[in-house]
Amino acid sequence: MAKKVALFPGSFDPLTNGHIDLIKRGSRLFDHLIVGIFQNTSKKSLFTLQEKIALAEEALVSLGNVEVVGQTQELTVASARRLHADYLLRGLRNGKDYEYERDIALMNAHLAPEIETVFLLADETHQFISSSLLKEILHFHGDISPYVPANVLDALEKKGW
C-alpha cells in the first residue's frame, strides 16, 4: 500500500498553537506530513525563512512523521509534486477562510488534478487565532504567550517584540 503523504503549506509567521494543533491532527491522518514554510509575497515577515524552519522543527520535534521544509520559488502544487505529496492539508477557522481556501483548492485542482486538498476545521479553542492578529497585538506590545509555542515566544522576545 502506498504511503499517504501530505503537504501543509503556509507562511507560519509566527507559528501558532492553532498551527501546531492542525499539524498534530494531520500527522495522525497521514503517514508522512510535510510542513511547507512558504513565502507569502503579500505579507511582511517577522522571521526569516531559516528562522521559521528552525522554530517549526523545534516545536514539532516530538512528531516523528512530520518534516519541515522551506521554499520561496515555486507554486504550492509544484512543491507537492516535487515532494511526492498526494494531498494538501489546509485549516479552516471560519466561513471567510472557507471561501478563500475553496478558491485556492479549485485552482490547485485545475493545476494539479492528481493532488487532493483536505480541510481540517480548527479546534474551537484556536478559531480566533491568526498570525495577522498576533502581529497586530505584538505591534502594540500585547501578550501573545497563550497563542504561540514557548520557543516562538522566546524568539520574538529576542527580536525585541
Describe, in short, the structure shown.
By secondary structure, the protein is of the alpha/beta class. It has one domain (5-158): Rossmann fold. The protein is 41% helix and 19% strand.
SSE layout and pairings?
Blueprint: E1 5-10, H1 17-29, E2 32-38, H2 49-59, E3 66-71, H3 76-82, E4 87-92, H4 95-111, E5 116-121, H5 131-139, H6 150-158
Parallel strand pairs: 1-2, 1-4, 2-3, 4-5
Task: Describe, in plain words, how this protein is organized in 3D.
This protein is an alpha/beta fold. It has a single domain (5-158), classed as HUPs (Rossmann fold, 3-Layer(aba) Sandwich). 41% of the residues lie in helices and 19% in strands. It has six helices and five strands, in the order E-H-E-H-E-H-E-H-E-H-H. The protein has a five-stranded parallel beta sheet with strand order 3-2-1-4-5, with helices on both faces. Strand 1, helix 1 and strand 2 form a beta-alpha-beta unit. It is globular and about 45 Å long. The termini are far apart.
What overall geometry do the principal axes of the alpha carbons give?
globular
The overall pLDDT average reads 94
CATH topology: the name is Rossmann fold
- What would you report as the Rg, rounded to the nearest angstrom? 15 Å
Low-pLDDT regions: none
Supply the CATH superfamily name: HUPs
| CATH architecture name | 3-Layer(aba) Sandwich
Number of helices: 6
Q: Biggest β-sheet, characterized?
A: 5 strands, parallel
Q: What portion of the residues fall into strands of 2 or more residues?
A: 15-25%
User: What separation lies between the terminal Cα atoms?
Assistant: 48 Å
Helix content: 40-55%
